[in-house]
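Database export, one record per block. Field names are fixed; values are copied verbatim from the stored entry.
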Amino acid sequence: MDIFIELAKKMSMTTMLEQLGEGMIKSLSIFGITLVLSLPLGLLVSFGRMSKNPVIRWIAKIYISVMRGTPLMLQLLVVRYGPWFLFGIRLTSDYNFPAVIIAFTINYAAYFAEIYRSGIESMPIGQYEAAKVLGFNRFDTFTRIIFPQVVKRILPSVTNEIITLVKDTSLAYVLSELEMFSLAKQIASSQTSFMPYLFAGLFYYVFNYIIAFVMERVEKSLSYYEIK
């Protein structure tokens, strides 16, 4: 009898790990796609925020204000159900995952935009003037002189946002996307066990530790002007 109980426990543990593995893949997908899309979009928005055109500048400013001033959970709901309530467009459950990606991307792009802006505006005006004297055009000045230094300056802030993004993936449950934490909660409820929460917590911790370690190595590799 004890053998059957132990076998059942092992099978239950295996099933739980498989289910959590599926949730982990979903969490990693949300994280990866959001990061790839929001980083360049944030740079584009930061250009709009610093534009000399007042219309573009204010549009970017309002966008950033709304994205940072409202909860991500609310933005998820607006992106998912807004088309129906505003335009009568009925969307199936297949739209859930794209809605998660859209909401996460436009939310994090706003934060990255302000990080980019702070880094770009912190650069001394003399570097622009020196580049102009040397014959660099505006594009080359930014890509070859300004932006590499900006990346070094903003890396700690970007790292913090990336770590926050990892944890925010758990909000995808709002649109019935079963990522890591949602599955852990379901399994813990069905099996009356705390183990799924421990595994989920371990996943978040280890993944964030890896991100912090990698970003720290990148930051050190960019410390080319420090005296050794």
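Remark 1: Helices lie at 2-49, 54-69, 72-87, 96-121, 125-133, 138-168, 180-191, 195-221.
Remark 2: Residues 1-11 have pLDDT under 50 and may be disordered.
End of record.
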